[in-house]
From TrEMBL, chain A:
Source taxon at top rank: Bacteria
Similarity comment: Belongs to the ABC transporter superfamily.
GO molecular function, a single term: ATP binding
Organism the protein comes from: Pseudonocardia xinjiangensis
Protein name (Swiss-Prot/TrEMBL): ABC transporter ATP-binding protein
InterPro entries per record: AAA+_ATPase, ABC_transporter-like_ATP-bd, ABC_transporter-like_CS, ABC_transporter_ATP-binding, P-loop_NTPase
Residue stretches making up the ABC transporter domain: 22-247
TrEMBL record, chain B:
Name of protein: ABC transporter permease
Subcellular location as annotated: Membrane
Residues covered by the ABC-2 type transporter transmembrane domain: 56-252
UniProt entry tagged with the keyword Transmembrane helix: yes
Pfam family, one: ABC2_membrane_3
Keyword list, A-Z: Membrane, Transmembrane, Transmembrane helix
Entry superkingdom: Bacteria
Predominant cellular place of this UniProt entry's protein: membrane
Topology within the bilayer: Multi-pass membrane protein
Membrane-spanning parts: 32-50, 62-86, 107-132, 144-165, 177-195, 232-252
Organism whose genome encodes this protein: Pseudonocardia xinjiangensis
């Protein structure tokens, strides 16, 4: 990714690319002495689901706030749907739906009143009835928002974000605190948005969520994007691993391209050449008549990559 | 996902009205807020009217009117507006509303308007009580109108500024106290003070202009030469503009929409 401009403040917009819903280059966000976002590049294509992963404090929500026009950037260029959110938030509001990480409700209002109010505040036409139905809230229409369960609140939150089916939907941890069934239904709703040609950007702690939904992901760590790309690209760029248990009397090991780690009887190999090293290992075992009943081999998982980023085992991509 | 569209046309004014009417509904629905922001100020204001009867003396009536104005402005509007702003910010409602079609200005107007409307209703009740009890009428209504408008500007900008230093709605019961007492106390003293000597310096305190303007409305002499040969109304006019500008500037620089920052 090429950084086009550095240290350009709000008002400096990247050249609009019709294929990109979001183009971020060299984004910095500073709060006093603390730099929450340290020069990140992000491109989100129209119609894709893009997941922003990272630990607490990685800078995900801060990045989203800049995209939404709520955060002030101290450097870099940002274009969302071809607009600069810092200076053109009003135009962006009409085309973008936002789900907050938490709260945002007047708890004394009922679900029906909340949706009716939203109908009078948002420029995208839609009907409360459709959303009550879609998000399974019809029976809770006359219940105060404060009395909803956590899952019901998240569904109402999502209903407000997708009101009028906006071009771009930004979801901040849409399934945090949800039970598996609610999570599944939220995933369905997100996939429906994509099927309707909408662009979705979401943050999540859940790797399985990113794997289930996202076309592309970016993993943030300490204010930087550590790795970005499609899941296949990211996984392919990381070493695969295989492991097996060997009898204690077998002391030697074959020479492999990957890194071999032996812990008692357990042998674990991390390698960029899974097929080659596995073939060598199996041939070596066969020659010694060693059976390998619990042999396991797998490409790198997103969990491996996430762990590597968190433990600083992966070199952070610097802009 | 296919949106079933309805031909909804939402105007900027319509959006502000939608949120403002919802805020009014919430004030009326919340019994504690309703009592503290409506019944208590009205009760106190009416009580003081009878307690400090003017006996037909316009100067004494100026004190009564100042108390009524201070109660409606400080207890009715200032406290309610601050509480509402902080509560909506802490619950991230302000942030949510900024993702709707409301402009930032419209959002603030809608959030603050119900407190202001309720305060004006309280003043209307006081006016009716004053007329009904045969209290003296102002000889010069202009300073009284200025007192109401300037007082509104003062407490609304003060509420915005106070919200900056108020982390929770509960804490607003403490953070609003100093200014509330200053407005009440200084206003009453100013309504009694002559426009001579060092007394105009009292205008340095917020709320004093309200009392001074009430006195000028009841006893006249707004344009009479006072300290340094300047019109008697001038210090109050400067204070009426100055304090809202100061509070407004503070709010503009430091106002937070989101509890996170």
């Amino acid at each position: 990714m090429t950084q086009t401009t550095d240290r350009a403040g709000p008002g400096a917009t990247a050249s609009p690319d019709t294929q990109l819903a979001i183009a971020v280059h060299g984004l910095h966000v500073r709060y006093g002495d603390f730099e929450a976002v340290r020069g990140i590049d992000l491109d989100v294509r129209r119609g894709e689901i893009f997941a922003l992963l990272g630990t607490n404090g990685a800078g995900k929500t801060t990045t989203l706030e800049v995209l939404e026009g709520f955060g002030t950037r101290s450097g870099g260029t940002v274009a969302v749907l071809g607009l600069d959110p810092a200076t053109e938030r009003a135009a962006l509001q009409v085309r973008m739906g936002v789900q907050l990480q938490e709260g945002g409700f007047v708890e004394e209002l009922t679900v029906g009143e909340t949706l009716a109010l939203w109908q009078r505040l948002v420029d995208r036409p839609d009907r409360p009835e459709r959303l009550l139905e879609r998000f399974d809230l019809r029976a809770r229409r006359d219940v105060s928002v404060g009395k909803l369960s956590g899952g019901e609140k998240r569904r109402l939150d999502l209903a407000l974000a997708v009101w009028g089916s906006p071009e771009l939907v930004i979801l901040d941890e849409p399934t945090t605190g949800l039970d598996p069934e609610s999570r599944r239904r939220t995933w369905d709703a997100i996939q429906e948005l994509q099927e309707a040609g909408r662009t979705v950007v979401l943050t999540t702690h859940y790797l399985e969520e990113a794997e289930a939904l996202a076309d592309r992901v970016a993993i943030m760590h300490e204010g930087r994007v550590a790795v970005t790309g499609t899941l296949a690209e990211i996984v392919a760029a990381q070493p695969a691993r295989f492991s097996a248990t060997l009898p204690a009397e077998i002391a030697d090991l074959p020479e492999l391209r990957g890194t071999t780690q032996r812990d008692g009887e357990r042998v674990q190999v991390r390698t960029d050449d899974l097929q080659g090293d596995l073939t060598t290992f199996l041939s070596w075992a066969a020659a010694r008549g060693v059976r390998l009943p619990d042999l396991r081999a797998a490409p790198a998982s997103l969990a491996d990559i996430y762990h590597a980023v968190r433990t600083d085992q992966m070199e952070v991509t610097r802009p | 996902m296919t949106a079933t569209t309805t031909a909804a046309t939402v105007t900027p004014v319509g959006r502000v009205l939608a949120l403002a009417t919802t805020e009014v509904l919430l004030i009326l629905r919340n019994k504690t807020v309703a009592v503290s922001s409506i019944l208590l100020p009205v009760g106190l204001g009416v009580f003081w009217t009878f307690q400090f009867s003017s006996y037909g003396d316009p100067a004494r009536q100026a004190v009564s009117i100042t108390l009524q104005l201070a109660v409606a402005l400080a207890m009715g509007i200032y406290i309610t507006a601050t509480q509402t702003l902080v509560a909506r910010r802490q619950a991230r409602v302000l942030k949510r509303m900024r993702t709707s079609g409301l402009s930032d200005r419209g959002l603030l107007v809608a959030t603050l308007a119900p407190s202001v409307v309720l305060g004006l209703l309280q003043l209307a009740v006081f006016a009716v009580v004053n007329v009904a009890t045969g209290a003296p009428m102002p000889v010069d209504p202009l300073p009284l109108v200025l007192a109401v408008l300037g007082g509104l500007a003062l407490v609304v900008t003060a509420a915005l500024a106070t919200s900056v230093i108020t982390p929770t709605p509960e804490r607003s019961q403490i953070t609003t106290l100093p200014l509330m007492f200053v407005i009440l106390g200084v206003g009453v003293v100013a309504s009694l003070a002559p426009a001579e000597g060092w007394w105009p310096a009292l205008m340095l305190a917020p709320g004093a202009a309200v009392g001074d303007l009430a006195q000028l409305a009841m006893t006249g002499g707004s344009w009479t030469a006072a300290t340094a040969g300047l019109p008697a109304i001038l210090p109050a006019l400067v204070a009426t503009v100055g304090w809202p500008v100061l509070f407004g500037t503070l709010a503009l620089r430091r106002f937070r929409w989101d509890p996170r920052h």
